[in-house]
Amino acid sequence: MAEVILHIYDITNSGSAKTNNTIVQINKIFKDGIGLGGIFHSAVQVYGDEEWSFGFCEQGTGVFSCPSSKNPMYTHREHIVLGKTNFPIFKVNQILRELSREWPGSSYDLLSKNCNHFCDEFCERLGVPKLPAWVNRFANAGDAAMEVAGNTALRLRQAKTEIVSASKVAYRFLMGLNSNSADTPESPSNSNRGSPRFQAAWFKNLISVGNKPSNSELENQGENTLQQQQ
Question: How far is CA 148 from CA 137, 140, 142, in A?
Fold first, then answer.
């Protein structure tokens, strides 16, 4: 059995002292002050003095190691003992080889596949508890927000497509009525069919009942319109 230790760092590799200081202050307020979380890098130590983590690179695996609590890119904050793994060292090395193949550096994503997600996966395979929720809360919240925004945009595009399609169907229907009216010899009843009032009544009847108006309805409508024209 071996202890599994989580090392947590403040992310201070922005290249700007002002930005780095701002991140440290955010972490102090949101983690130390109210316990919500912050912007952190994490790594897992098991068997030996090396810690393992994940980062971006253009080619090859993104899994890497360095001396525990001494990653030169970040500022070490604290460490947490997550538990003990029952796996022997050769099994742990096998897990690391598998993760190295499954986590290429080009797949790194700040919100959905970062170092904290890697440590979660590593700990799960080691059979110990995952990271405390506050370690990756900001990234998870951002990822959820992006997913909601994407789904909302998709629904809006679908609704727009449906509205346009329905408008085209209605337009073709009304144009068909006008075409039929133009092709039929003029009579009091036939000329009335092309009137907007009659088209609206027919269209309303078609929607509410599902059938074309009867002959009696056509005749009544024609007589009413003829009287009005006279």
Answer: 16, 12, 10
Q: What is the mean pLDDT of residues 158-174?
A: 65
Q: How many folded domains does the chain comprise?
A: 1
Residue 76 lies in a domain: yes
The C-alpha atoms of residue 225 and residue 220 are separated, in whole angstroms, by 9
Count CB neighbours of 179 within 10 A.
Answer: 11
CATH number where 14 lies:
3.90.1720.30
pLDDT of residue 216: 58
List the catalytic residues: 41, 115
Does residue 163 belong to any structural domain of this protein?
Answer: yes
Looking at the chain, how many residues does it have? 230
pTM: 0.60
Range of the domain at 63: 2-175
Q: What is the mean pLDDT of the chain?
A: 77
Q: Is residue 133 part of a domain?
A: yes
Q: Residue 211: inside a domain, yes or no?
A: no
